[in-house]
Design brief:
This protein has two helices and 24 strands. The chain is mainly beta and 392 residues long. The protein starts with a helix and ends with a strand. It binds calcium ion. The site of calcium ion (CA) has 6 residues, from loops.
Length: 392
């Protein structure tokens, strides 16, 4: 009896040791998804640094060009510029017209939200406005937000926006590059994610509404204003995408690090995402920005991209066309001219792969059409709208 048992045991050990690596391999292989055959078509070209895209009813597209024009694209034809944009749009370097987002109840109320850099070389700021569109004219324009303090750099405006289910609007605000320390200050809206209601008012449940941070510095009247009530999260550098994932019911944002340290974060109200105290990147000179890669009270990046990929637009895919993409994140890359596919299980990244490198152009934005196809914007003087569909 004993002998038989021992033989059985030896056999079991042998089987387990032979089979287990196979099992592990089979499991990890099955978790790496690939995209079925797809087709890339050009919807339009000749756009000047297109930055963002919204899908209007009747298959019309609304496209912002960073150089300061908003246009419709109908059946591949690009319209004349839409009139009624503000006259203080500041077009220089990374500044200009930025995001365009429709109100969740657009079909009922017609509100379109636009973010843009405004002002002059000496004094500029990210602003957010809303307006309604009739034909090729904006009307009922209202400026809802102007980031304070103003700055004197033409870069790091951020400017991406996403609505939450309660019709509040999240807005990414960059650190202005030369003002990175302000990303940690609740007295400044630089380097923050800001939250306003759809009419521009302060949401009563913003995390610092009740904090009553009163400012003691007497000299600067601009940072005397209590802006902390607008802040949703802090410690951001230059967040180039933000989205609300309706299934996970959470917010994702990506941001540019300096040399290294690009990040994706799960954004929670009132949290500090670390910049510039915590970073895995170096200054462009190669100098260390901070000795810390972690710090009490500051969030670690959910995904760290070192070396930097220069992420831009990002979506959570729940369309009906590409089953393989369901529940995953897709982010465009300016630097590596492709789309990063973060394959997720819950909030765990199982695998990162890349898609559409054959396009070979800097990519500025990605959007999911209601029919499940993917739309990409290329970042160029002769910018294109591309549509990706499942091959028939
Ligand atoms: Ca961070």
């Amino acid at each position: 009896m004993k002998r038989i048992k021992r033989v059985k045991l030896v056999l079991q050990i042998l089987l387990v040791s032979i089979c287990c690596p196979l099992l592990v391999q089979a499991q990890s292989n099955s978790s790496i998804k690939s995209l079925p055959d797809y087709h890339i078509e050009q919807v339009a070209s000749g756009l000047h640094y297109p930055w963002s895209l919204a899908f209007l009813p009747n298959d019309e597209l609304l496209v912002s060009e960073r150089t300061g024009q908003l246009r419709k694209v109908i059946a591949g034809v690009i319209s004349e510029p839409i009139s009624g944009l503000p006259d203080d749009i500041y077009v220089k370097s990374q500044g200009g017209l930025l995001d365009v987002v429709l109100h969740p109840d657009y079909k009922q109320n017609g509100w379109i939200y636009l973010s843009y850099a405004a002002g002059t070389d000496e004094e500029n700021a990210l602003k957010v406005m809303r307006a309604k569109l009739s034909g090729l004219a904006l009307h009922e324009q209202q400026v809802l937000l102007s980031v304070t303090p103003t700055k004197n750099t033409p870069v790091h405006f951020a400017g991406r926006m996403a609505f939450l289910p309660d019709n509040s609007l999240l807005i990414t605000s960059g650190d202005g590059f030369d003002f990175r320390e302000q990303a940690q200050l609740k007295t400044s809206l630089l380097g923050k994610i800001i939250r306003i209601m759809d009419d521009g008012s302060v949401p009563v449940d913003n995390p610092f509404v009740a904090s009553g941070e009163v400012l003691t510095s007497a000299s600067d009247s601009e940072i005397q204003q209590d802006v902390s009530q607008y802040i949703y999260s802090l410690g951001h550098r230059n967040a180039q995408a933000i989205l609300y994932d309706p299934v996970r019911q959470q917010v994702f944002a990506n941001e540019h690090g300096p040399a290294g340290g690009d990040e994706v974060n799960i954004i929670l109200a009132g949290q500090n995402y670390g910049w510039p105290v915590v970073t895995r990147g170096l200054d462009y000179s190669g100098a260390r920005i901070s000795p810390f890669t972690e710090y009490p009270g500051m969030q670690q990046p959910w995904v760290d991209w070192t070396p930097s990929i220069a992420p831009s637009g990002m979506v959570a895919y729940y369309g009906s066309m590409f089953e393989a993409l369901k529940g995953d994140l897709l982010a465009t890359s300016l630097k590596f001219k492709q789309v990063y596919w973060l394959q997720l299980n819950g909030n765990q990244v199982l695998q990162q792969t890349t898609l559409f490198s054959e396009i070979g152009e800097r990519l500025r934005d990605i959007r999911v059409h209601p029919d499940g196809s993917l739309y990409l914007l290329t970042d160029a003087a002769d910018g294109k709208i591309l549509r990706i569909t499942l091959s028939k």
